[in-house]
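Entry type: protein chain
Record version: 2
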Amino acid sequence: MSILVDSCGWSLLFRRKSQAAMSEDEQRIVASLTEAVRDGRVAIIGPIRQEILSGIKDLAQFEELRVALEAFEDEPITTQHYVEAARLFNICRSRGVECGSVDILMCAVASRKRWSILTTDGGLKRCMEVLQTEGLLL
C-alpha cells in the first residue's frame, strides 16, 4: 500500500535535526518513510511538494531538495478529489474539527486511493481520526 507523505514527514527526512536529536515518534516516522521510499510506496501531491520547497532561503539548498524530490511523481489531483475534499471537510467540521485545505485534500486523495497518510501534524491527525471513525480513511 502506498503512503501519502505530509510535508512534515518530508521535512524530518530532508531538512531537520540529526537522528539523535529527534523524538522517538520522529525517528519512527523517518524509519517508516525511508522504508517506504526503498520499497517504492511513497506518494506525493503537488501542494505538498510546494509546501516542502517553500521558505528555503538558500538557492543551493532549494535546488538540492527540488532535485531529490524529482524521484517522486505527483499523484494527479482531479475535480473529484476537490469535491471529495469538500465533503470530508464538511464531515470533520460537523464533528467540531477544522481542517486545512491541503490537509483535507490529502485525506481525499488517500481516501479515494485507499492509501495511508504519514504525518506528525496534530491538526491533520485530528482530521484523520474523524475520517477513520467514519470509515472513510485507513
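Comment: The longest strand covers residues 3-5.
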